Amino acid sequence: MIHSQGLSALVRLSDAIKSGLLLGASMTTPIIAAYKQNEPKYNEIARLGKLLGEPGADVAKIESKLTSVNESIPQETKAMAAEMLFHLHGQAMSVILLSCFCLESYINNMAFFLFKEKDYLGLIKDGHASTADILVDAIIKMSVRQKWEKVCCLDNEAAFDRSRPPVQDFGYLFNFRDDVVHDKVLAFGEDRAKKRYNNRLPDPVLSQLSLKHAQYAARVYRDMVKYLHQFVGVEQCDFQKHYNLSPWRSPEDEKRIDALVLEYSKCGLDFTLSSLG
């Protein structure tokens, strides 16, 4: 992104999200197709899997049936699905982390724009350009959460409402990011999905990421950008200029990904295909 006094990687980061979502969509499509080709069998696997968790279940009998149904699905179909799920998880993880990177880049760029170009506080006009530099540097050194809170609250101390979306989702997203980037050994049975992410994202250790989670992260980025501009009083077009800083190339791309996410969910693929070895 080119400013009057320099440039940043914000545009390239947002383009990487666009690419990542489209690649995730290209991986989701054949997974759905593989499911539909063998839908009755996958449904039976799901049914038997639920039976295993019921009190008094005949585990040996159920496992025998599961093995039989599983073996009736063509090996190449299972191999392809497993391969696509492997890549989809990695792609979704990339989009989630890129969305976090983009959120930090966006707020850094906004701080520069407000204090160095727009002279939001009138520091440069009053002959205090060095103070503007110090202010921008101070914001850049803050944590991402602090940066967003400080800039959003420039004219309204209550602007950063953690109890409501999108700031609430921003917190869930960065909890996930922190748990992945600052990974540590946890006790067995500790699932962070509900406690740390309110089930918006799955536990990063034992769960399968999908296009849904990538789309969620992209939306958090998009919604936080809208939220920021609402409170700093700068139109998106004035800051973003001719650049497309959206996570999607077009509204049509966003709708197409939404449709794939919905179809994936209706198929119950998080349980059936990801349970296949």
Outline:
The chain is an all-alpha fold and 277 residues long. The protein has helices at 10-37, 39-52, 59-72, 75-117, 129-141, 144-152, 167-181, 192-197, 211-232, 236-240, 251-266, 269-272; strands at residues 2-3, 6-7.
What does this structure look like?
With 277 residues, the protein is an all-alpha fold. The protein has a domain at 2-11 and 92-253. It contains twelve helices and two strands. It has helices spanning 10-37, 39-52, 59-72, 75-117, 129-141, 144-152, 167-181, 192-197, 211-232, 236-240, 251-266, 269-272, and strands at residues 2-3, 6-7. A two-stranded antiparallel sheet has the order 1-2. Helix 4 (75-117) packs antiparallel against helix 5 (129-141). The radius of gyration is 23 Å and the shape is elongated. The two termini are 45 Å apart.
